[in-house]
Amino acid sequence: MRAVRLVYAFDEEAPGGRDLLGGKGVGLAEMTALGIPVPAGFTVTTDACRETMRSGEVPPSLWAEVDEHVEGLQERAGKRFGDHDDPLLVSVRSGAAISMPGMMDTILNLGLNDVAVEGLATATGNPRFAFDSYRRLIQMYGEVVDEVDGHLFEGELQGLKERRGARQDVELTADDLRELIARFQEIYEREVGSPFPQDAPEQLRRAIRAVFDSWEAPRARVYRRTYDIPDDLGTAVNVVQMVFGNKGDTSGTGVCFTRDPSTGERCLFGEFLLNAQGEDVVAGIRTPQPIEQMREIMPEAYAQLVDTLERLESHYRDMQDIEFTVEDGVLYLLQTRTGKRTAQAALRIAAEMTEEGLISREEAVARIDAGQLDQLLHPMIDPSADVEVVATGLNASPGAASGAIVLDADLAEERGRAGDDVLLVRWETTPDDIHGLIHSVGVLTAHGGMTSHAAVVARGMGKPCVAGCDALAIDLDARTIRIGELELREGDPLTIDGGTGRVIVGAVPLVPPAIDENFGTILGWADDFRRLRVRANADTPTDAAKAREFGAEGIGLCRTEHMFMAPDRLPVVQEMILASDEKARRAALDRLLPVQQKDFEEIFEAMAGFPVTIRLLDPPLHEFLPSAEEATSDAMRRRIEQLREANPMLGTRGCRLGLQWPEIYEMQVRAIVRAARAVAERTGEPPLVEIMHPLVGFAEELRRLRELTERVASEEPGVEYLCGTMIELPRACMRADEIAESADFYSFGTNDLTQTALGFSRDDAEGKFLTYYLEHGILGRNPFEVLDREGVGDLMRIAVERGRGVKPELKLGICGEHGGEPRSVAFCHEIGLDYVSCSPYRVPLARLAAAQAALAEAGVTAVAIGG
Ligand code: PEP
Ligand code: MG
After folding, report:
1. String of b and e for 687-720 (b: at least 16 CB within 10 Å)?
2. CA-closest residue to ligand 1 atom 6
3. CA 609 – CA 44 distance, rounded (Å)
4. Tens of pLDDT along 489-537?
5. Which residues line ligand 1 (CB under 6 A)?
6. Sheet holding 106-110, edge to edge
C-alpha cells in the first residue's frame, strides 16, 4: 500500500479541505472546479509540513510526488521545467489553514538560470521581461531560502535607478537589468558562499523546504500568538505555473476586494500595478493605481475581473479578497479568500448580504468577530478641535491615535511595553515589524497602498493606520522625520486619523465614535438569538446611562468603594476609619449615608426597569488612607500602622470587614433601601434591588450578613430586594450548596477567583512572571483576560451544580472582567449562567458573543476568515 499522499493537483479530489491544503490551496482547487481561470499547479499538504517540523527532514516520498506533479504540469504546458529554450516557470506560495497575511514566504520565477533566461528572452521576444523575472528570482530566493539581507538587493536596485535617473523600476532597460543580475549574483555568492543554484529541481526543493521553515519564523510565531492560531497547524505549499504580470503594458498584477474592507460598501475595491509582479503590490514598495483605472487601460480584462468577482462572491457567500495577474491581456486568479475587514465593514457587509438574500440573520450574527467590535468603539478626533493637518495619506484603518513618534519596531515594543502611547512611523512596514505594531497605538507609513502590509495588519488589529503618505520622509540616522517643510524628532507627539488619512502635529483631543445603523441592526438580531442576559459593571449614573445606550439590561456590579473615594467624601471616610470607638464611627457614617443614598437613587433611576446589583464595601480600609509618610496626624499614622497587612488582597477585606465593623454595611444597606423607597415613591416604579456581599467563603459569613441585611431593611418596610454573594474564592465554589441557603443569587467574581485559584496576584502577576509564562508558552493565554476554563472554569461548574442542586431557582451571573471577553462569555453560556456583566464599552461585544454561543449550540458557526 502506498503511504499517505502528500501532493494534490488543483484539479484533483483531495481527502481534506483547508486543514490539509491550506486556505490558498483550497481556494485554487475550488476556483479550478468552478471554471475560473487559474494557472495550473498543485498543493503540497500541511501533513508534509508537520512531518518536516516533527522530524527535521522532509518525508521520504515527497520529492518523488513533487516530481510526478511537475511532470503533469510540463505535459499540460507543453514546456519543460529547467528547459533552456522556453522554460516552464513556477512560483512557490505558502498557504496555511488560517490566513496570516504576509507572514510567510513566496518565491516567483523558479526554473530560471543563466541559460534559461536567455531562452525566455528569445521565446517571448521580451528580454526586459526575462531579465526582470530572473533578478526577482535571485532576490526572493536569496532572501527566503538563504536568508540574505533583502536590503543588499534593494540598495543595489536603488543605486542603479539613481545612476540611470530612473524613478520607477519599469524605467530600467533590459541591459540595466542584465547588469543588475550580475550584481545580485555577486551578492548571493558573497553572502551564501556558493553561486546561485542553476538546477531547477534543486531550486524547487529548497524553496518548498524554506516555506515549511517559514512557519517557524519569529514573526510568524508572534502573529500566531496574537491571533491565537495553534502552532502545530503547519502550512501547505502551492506550486503554481507562472503567469506574468511583468511582460509589458498589456500585463499587470493586482489585488481586489469584492466590497470595501474599510467601510463595507458594495463596490470593487483594489489596486493594480501595470507591468509588475505580485509582490510589488503586497509589499507596498511601489504605490499602485486604484482598480477603476484598469477599466480604461485594459477594458476586457477588467470586465472579466468584475464578472469573476461576482461569481466568487455568490459562490462563497462572503466578501472575497483576491490576487490576480493579467498576462498579455488575459486574466488569471492566483488566490481567493474571505477578506479581512474592519468591524464597521463587517457589520455593513453582514447586514447588506442578509438584505440581498445571500445569508441568513443567524449567519450574519455568527460571522461578526466579537472581539473586533471593540474597534467601533475607538476614539475619533474631536470634530470641534482646532487641528494642524500637515499631510494626508491613505485612510488605511479607521480610528484616531495620538502618540510619540517611534521609528523602529524594537523601540516601539520597548516603549509600548513601558506603558507609553507610541505611534510607529516607517517608510513601509514588513512582517518583521509585527511586534512593534502590536505595541503601538497606530502606524503611519510613507509608502504602500490600502493593501500593503501595514494596512492589512492594522485593520486586523483594529489599530488606526495612515499609509502611503508621500509627504513623509524618515531619517533613521538622525532619528527625525520630515513632513513637507516640518521636521520632527523621535518622541515628538503626532496624531493620525485612519478614517480620513490626516496626519496632525501634536496630540489632539479624541472623542468616542458614533455607532451606525448596521451596528444596531446586527446587535438587534443578536438579542433575538441569545439566552444570556447582559448587564454592565457601573458605579456612577453616567456609566449606567452609557451602559443603557449600549444595550445593558441592568447593572451586575456597582462597586460602592468608588463612591467612598470621591474627593468630597474621602475626609469623612477617613474620619470613619480613624474613629477611636463605635460611636464616633457611626457619627461619620451617618454623614456618609445621605450621599450614598443620593448615588443609589440616581443609579436606580438611570437603570429603571432593570436589576441593579450593589456590592457592599470590598477593599481593605488602608486603601482609603494616605501612606504613613503623608499622614497628617499621629492618630492617622498609628491607624495606618495598625491596618497595615503583608497581603492585603488576602486580608481584612470584603465581608470580613463588614462582619468586624457591621456599622459600615448597616449604613450601606440603609442607604440602598432608602434610595429604593424614594425612587419608588418619586417614579411609581420600584427599582429591582440586589444587595451583594463580597468575598464570602463560609456559609456562616453569609448567614450572618443576610441577617444584618434583613434587620436593617426591615426598618424600611415594603422595599423588595434580593440578597446574594459574590463567588470569588475556591472554598465558596466547593461549599456552594451550603452558602446557597442564605443566597438568592451568586455572581462569580472571576478576578479574585482567578487570583485565588491560581495563586497569581492580580496586582503583580502581569508585570512579572506572567509575561515570561506567556512568552515561553507555559501558558497560552493571560488567565486574567481569558477565563481559565480548566481550572477556574471547573470551580465555577462545581459551584453551579452544587448551588442549583439545593436551590434550582438560584440566579447566577458573572461580574469579573471575563464577563466581557467573547470566549469566556461562551463558557458562561455553556455552564448555564443567567447573565454576564462587563464594562459598558464591552456590552455590545458581550451581546454578540452570547448570541454566537447560543447559535454555536444550535450548530450555526462562522466560516473562518482565512486564505
Ligand atoms: C472580581 O473579583 O472578579 C470582582 C468583580 O470584584 P473586584 O474586581 O472588585 O474584586
Ligand atoms: Mg473581587
Report:
1. bbbbbbbbbbbebebbebbbebbeebbeebeebe
2. 749
3. 60
4. 999 999 999 888 899 999 998 877 767 899 999 999 999 999 999 999 9
5. 557, 559, 618, 728, 749-752, 815-816
6. 7-9, 41-44, 235-241, 90-96, 106-110
